[in-house]
């Protein structure tokens, strides 16, 4: 693997990268020989905050894994409205759809902090699949995880209240981006109220109303795009409630 990454101050070793990747159950369940092959083929690239990894409609140029930073997967409507599908934290893989069907990218993918991505090129992935067709099964499992996540978002939008959706998404983000804080768990992502509104498909005014109310109750502390989850049990209870 080429582990030289320009413009990054993070010192990465083969062992560091493996440790990060194995936080993902999909990767850690791969046979050792497939892990070795993937690591041999992989390259790393640094993406500054705000750089596009790919646009919706682009040809597939790789299967990716986040090693450092974060990637936002979203789409933009013709009138400029954004729909955020997911945020990807270190250890998460993406790009499997276009690599499997050899078609165009389904969404935009953008680095939202200084980010390092591991990449398996189309040529190398084709070689791996030809020599080790069992890897198709593992790519299908990766794809199924994406589909299940999409169905969850659809179900939540149809069946859960705005409060439940917001609480559920904050708890989900805490799993990937939560850092210990004296008050609770702080999200390392910088999220504006507009960002939260696009994530759960509502308005910024509605998000503001919920956040102000939850701050008064002592459930969260939200200032300048930084959110601290203070009362996790209360948020979990709200996330399971389908009533406004």
UniProtKB/TrEMBL annotation:
<keyword id="KW-0805">Transcription regulation</keyword>
<dbReference type="InterPro" id="IPR012318">
    <property type="entry name" value="HTH_CRP"/>
</dbReference>
<keyword id="KW-0238">DNA-binding</keyword>
<protein>
    <submittedName>
        <fullName>Crp/Fnr family transcriptional regulator</fullName>
    </submittedName>
</protein>
<dbReference type="Pfam" id="PF00027">
    <property type="entry name" value="cNMP_binding"/>
</dbReference>
<dbReference type="InterPro" id="IPR050397">
    <property type="entry name" value="Env_Response_Regulators"/>
</dbReference>
<dbReference type="InterPro" id="IPR000595">
    <property type="entry name" value="cNMP-bd_dom"/>
</dbReference>
<dbReference type="GO" id="GO:0003677">
    <property type="term" value="F:DNA binding"/>
</dbReference>
<dbReference type="GO" id="GO:0005829">
    <property type="term" value="C:cytosol"/>
</dbReference>
<feature type="domain" description="HTH crp-type">
    <location>
        <begin position="160"/>
        <end position="233"/>
    </location>
</feature>
<dbReference type="InterPro" id="IPR014710">
    <property type="entry name" value="RmlC-like_jellyroll"/>
</dbReference>
<keyword id="KW-0804">Transcription</keyword>
<dbReference type="InterPro" id="IPR036388">
    <property type="entry name" value="WH-like_DNA-bd_sf"/>
</dbReference>
<dbReference type="Pfam" id="PF13545">
    <property type="entry name" value="HTH_Crp_2"/>
</dbReference>
<dbReference type="InterPro" id="IPR036390">
    <property type="entry name" value="WH_DNA-bd_sf"/>
</dbReference>
<feature type="domain" description="Cyclic nucleotide-binding">
    <location>
        <begin position="26"/>
        <end position="129"/>
    </location>
</feature>
<dbReference type="InterPro" id="IPR018490">
    <property type="entry name" value="cNMP-bd_dom_sf"/>
</dbReference>
<dbReference type="GO" id="GO:0003700">
    <property type="term" value="F:DNA-binding transcription factor activity"/>
</dbReference>
């Amino acid at each position: 693997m080429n582990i030289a990454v320009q413009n990054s101050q993070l010192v990465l070793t083969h062992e560091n990268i493996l440790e990060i990747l194995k936080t993902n159950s999909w990767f850690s369940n791969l046979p050792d020989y497939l892990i070795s092959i993937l690591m041999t083929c992989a390259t790393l690239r640094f993406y500054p905050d705000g750089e596009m990894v790919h646009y919706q409609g682009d040809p597939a140029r790789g299967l990716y894994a986040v090693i450092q930073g974060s990637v936002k997967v979203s789409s933009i409507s013709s009138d400029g409205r954004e729909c955020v599908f997911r945020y990807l934290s270190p250890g998460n893989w993406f790009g499997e759809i276009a690599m499997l069907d050899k078609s165009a990218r389904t969404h935009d993918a953008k680095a939202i902090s200084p980010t390092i991505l591991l990449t398996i090129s189309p040529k190398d992935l084709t070689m791996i699949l030809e020599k080790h067709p069992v890897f198709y099964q593992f790519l299908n499992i990766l794809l199924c995880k994406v589909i299940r996540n999409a169905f969850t978002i659809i179900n939540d939008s149809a069946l859960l209240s705005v409060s439940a959706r917001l609480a559920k998404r904050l708890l989900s983000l805490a799993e990937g981006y939560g850092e210990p804080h004296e008050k609770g768990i702080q999200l390392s992502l910088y999220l504006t109220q507009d960002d939260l509104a696009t994530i759960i498909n509502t308005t910024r005014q509605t998000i503001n109303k919920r956040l102000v109310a939850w701050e008064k109750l002592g459930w969260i502390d939200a200032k300048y795009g930084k959110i601290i989850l203070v009362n996790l049990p209360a948020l979990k209870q709200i996330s399971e409630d389908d009533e406004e």
